[in-house]
Amino acid sequence: MNGLALGAAFAGLLAIQVMPSLHLAWQQTQRLHDGRSVRLAVETRDPRDLLRGEYSVLAYEIGRLQGLGVRSRPLGCDLDARESCRLETGRVVYLRLAADAEGIHRAEEVLFEPPQEGSLFIRGQLGSATLARQGAPLGIRARPGGQPSEPATCQRPACLTGAVSYGIEQWYGAQGDPAKLDRTARKDVLVEVRVAPDGRAVLDGLTVAGKAFAKTARLW
Amino acid sequence: MPLSYSARLRRDLRDWQERGLIQPEQAERIAAHALAARGLRPLQTALALCILLLVAPSVIAFVAANWSAMSPPARLVVLVLADTAAVAGTYLAARRLSRDRIRSSRRVVDGLATLSLAIAAATLALVGQTFHVAADPRGFAVTVAILGAATALITRSGGAAIVACIALIAADAGLNGLDLGSLRGETGSGAGLWFWTLGPALFVASLTGWLPAREFTLLLLLIVLTNHLGGAPAGLTVLLPPDRILTVAALALALGHLLSRVPPRGGWPPRLHDGAQALARAAVGLNLIGIVMVAVRTLGFGGARPAFTVALAFAAIALAAFILARRRSPARATLLTSDLLVLAASALALLVWLIAGASREPSTFWTVWGGIVPALTLVVAGELEDRRELYGWGLALTAGLTVGMLAASSNLIAFSGNLLLCALLVTLALVACRWAARRIDGRAA
């Protein structure tokens, strides 16, 4: 191999090696700039990742669905023949979001295809999940005021119960900060998220009791 | 069996002199050439390694101490510059290697290329951390496998190839080790596609000598191949059915032997010969893993029972034995080669697993015949052709299984009886060998 070809090959190697990191950094910054702002409620836990340092796991309210309505039925699940069916892990879903009176975004319904009409939605991947047809039991629903609980049933054409992840479940902080966050009451923690037009989410920042706790850095 | 090269060479020279193959002055000249003092070069290499081991953690600690204070763009710049420096260093070492053909330059290229790969992987992980991207171990492993394969093929680095192979295994198993998905036998989504893209490229490059012919690289590739063969890929090799492992091992052994018999013509067949021999050694390593798996299953771990695919494994072993017997060099036509013994050990282990699956006998009985006896066969195979690795691994497996059975067996009397029965059969074999040797000597006289 002559010198020029060898130099070109090694320049190509450098490009291949740095491309994934630069692409990830550029893509995340782009989403942080252009994404629509969403505020999500969470509960936290405190693990440590030996590979990547100290972080908090953010378990979102919209990450644990309890019989959320489904607009269209997915392929491979025939609810006319049976009451419910399990959906495969890793399946992509889209949750339509709407803000409540306090400005916190809640899940309205689940879709298996990206919505067309320009509404606010977030893209996630199913963990363990079950789809139930209308009228099927969903579990026991607690009632306020100490009244006896009642069995809940699916009131929509189909309902989804299960776990969904959005790729924003970990927040990495300086040493000690994640532990500080985990000692905070769950109801005081809110996560600011930016959602790109395709529904992919990026963690933008954290607020604790209404005050900014952390903000994700940007390249520009 | 002496382990050091100098001790083995002195022993061989003494032996050859006693047999009259070489004269004493020839032995002295060989010893003087092979064991000549190498001056201060080894000391220089050792000191350079010490400097590297001191400077690298120092730089890492300095950067880590200031990491929190650096802005994200500055962090990215530092990491990219470090990777650029490593790739540039690899390029300079590769140019020197192509000009001077110094063997130590090959090691420098290898080390720097592997370092650049490690920096690229660390950069990706740290960028993910900066932007709070949730961990995706399988996606990360696939990316490292792609980067490792590219680095290995461009720089001809064996170290990068090993990293790529380990990443492919991690992409199958998940970096969380024995997670539930692995226990259920699931592979990462998309990992199969990447294995069938990268695996053949690395395999052919190792076999043809483009990459250094390392049996460890080929063994890792064979492990991933085993994982991806069959109807449902298994998550971890430790949970793979032994018949699948032994099928792949036997076919790889046969392929290695076939390719090593290709007559040398042109520039690359000698390299192909080295690669084929490395493949045969890797296949023997996979046989060893298969025998361990049989012992594990016989002891009741793993849960899988023998299936119809055991017949395929027996067919593969028979085919490999046929090829090995037919393609032996004329000088060794009547000798029992160590690889044939390895195949016999595999067949015995498989047979015992098959019988144990349908039997009500306690695991103590079958572990002796399906684990310890095949392991001892490997020891004999290693001794037969002076293969130290095979000898050592066979002894280690025998010792491990024996100690394990002594600690865990609920019926030590049965264990002792089976060991004695095995020793009795080996004694009969020894007597038969001595009788045959006397007859051969008598005929020769």
TrEMBL record, chain A:
A Pfam family annotated for this UniProt entry: GDYXXLXY
InterPro entries per record: GDYXXLXY (IPR025833)
Protein name listed in UniProt: GDYXXLXY domain-containing protein
Organism: Methylobacterium longum
UniProtKB/TrEMBL annotation, chain B:
Keyword Transmembrane helix among record annotations: yes
Domain of life from the UniProt record: Bacteria
Record keywords: Membrane, Transmembrane, Transmembrane helix
Entry's transmembrane regions: 46-67, 73-92, 112-131, 193-211, 218-239, 282-301, 307-325, 337-358, 364-381, 390-409, 415-437
InterPro entries registered for this protein in UniProt: DUF2157
Keyword Membrane: yes
Pfam family name, one: DUF2157
Domain DUF2157: 15-159
Identification of the protein by name: DUF2157 domain-containing protein
Organism the protein comes from: Methylobacterium longum
